[in-house]
Amino acid sequence: MPALLELSDVTARYGQVVALHGVSLTVADGEIVALLGANGAGKTTTLRAVSGTVRRTGDIVLGGKRLGRATPEAVARSGVAHVPEGRGIFAELTVWENMRMGGYTVRRPDFATVLGYFPWLQERRNQQAGTLSGGEQQMLALARAFLSRPRLLMLDEPSLGLAPIITREVFRVVTELNQKEGLAVLVVEQNAAVALAAAQRGYVLETGRVAVSGSAGELKSDDAVRTAYLGY
Amino acid sequence: MQTFFQTLTTGLADGSIYGSLALALVLIYKATEVINFAQGEMAMFTTYIAWALMGHGSSFEWWAFFATLGIAFVGGAALQQTVIRPLERASVLTAVMATIALLVILNGLAAWIWSPQLQFFPSPFPTSSWVIGGVHISKQDVGTFGVVMACVLVLWLFFRFTKLGLAMRAGALNPSAARLMGVRASWLLALGWGFAAALGAVSGMMVAPTVFLTPNMMQAVLIYAFAAAILGGLESPVGAIAGGLSLGVLLNMLGQYVHPVTSELQLPVALAILLVVLLIKPAGLFGRVVVKRV
User: Fold this and answer.
1) Helix (H, G, I), strand (E, B) or coil at A81
2) Reduced to 3 states, what is the DSSP secondary structure of residue A190?
3) Would the CB atoms of A101 and B184 count as touching at under 8 Å?
4) Which residues are within 8 A (CB) of B58 and not within 5 positions of it... i.e. 6 or more apart?
5) CA-nearest residue of chain B to A76?
6) Which of B225, B188, B168 is nearest to B25 (CA)?
7) Distance in Å from the first CA to the final CA of chain A
8) What global pTM score does this model have?
9) Domains of chain A (ranges plus CATH)?
């Protein structure tokens, strides 16, 4: 199967500090891929390199097209929905206005399908998004991302600050969007156990390089990965 | 009592002019944190264009009024793209300095093109008054207030109900997140400058009949607009209008009832209000306290 997203030898830097030293990875159509690693390993930067919110070099190909020096808005318009660190919710806008922003580039956003996955958004539509709980905000971020009709969904630490039960719920919805809507997902996670349970494949980053990669099963049984990130 | 109501209507008319220019400042400040010192001179310059379109001020024409709004919109957007956009990565202070340079350039350019002489600018409204229960209500005051508020209402409807307006609000709140939704941020900033310039043109064309058209006519108005915007919290569109109206009424009332406050003292009083607000409530009456992580 041809890769939906392919990174070849991608480097990225913040000023003088190099955050990625040549990362290569692929995400196939309809696949969930986990990006694991310690703090500062370059997980967030990898997502930002794709969405163009950090300066990058190397080849990034999306659906056969090179992204080159594409701006964040151009990457978004070519089918990548990036839910950034901190979720990027417009706290002062209402829930519904946030959702309309998700469908900004779409002529007729499919609100009905989204409300099928997140029915509670309907009754909260006029609530200020900043007053939602952390888990609700994460769900809203997912709904908003899905409304842009993306080919690839990139999630940056969806579990951050959430109770384990809410985290499981978030990943259940992500898996459902993946299976029913065929959405490809690249997810960055500290919580490796949860991420590998949902993902088919994964990459472990260490200091800006891919240290280990393989199927979710292989990674779960890899001794180094287990002691470093799974803790058993 | 009659004097009171007459002073009130004049105050509201003056205040609506301060408020619309204050709103123009707030629109740009909210989106970019740049205070546009050239806002007044942009308004003055476009008022000269209106004056030229109206046969050098021979009679007021509504088509010229609307044409001027269009020209101001395009001009504002063009200034953003050519002067402000290249400074995107520079500090906010650099952009503010650029707007001060713009102020001087536009002022000199207007004097050079149209001469610094005082010109008569026609009003769309008759100079007569309505008399209601012994109170003389100037048609000019009511008309000015009405035109400014209608423009503000149109702008509010745009921001509240259109997709583009929503994207502009989202972009002002969180530019990086808006870009991740596919919003072309730089283009929307140009749009914001266009709206601000058009709003400024309204205030210029409404104030010109009473202060006469000169290259310096907006300088005092700009100070009042700053005071109004700061009174309203600099971040709040509603606050800018409310700040402008209360400032207009307050200054007229002081001029009417407090003997030593003559027209010479109006500007110092406005600045004193500005200082007192900054000392007591730095976030303004409608503003929120912003806590910055250092």
Assistant:
1) strand
2) coil
3) no
4) B122
5) B182
6) B225
7) 34
8) 0.86
9) 3-230 (3.40.50.300)
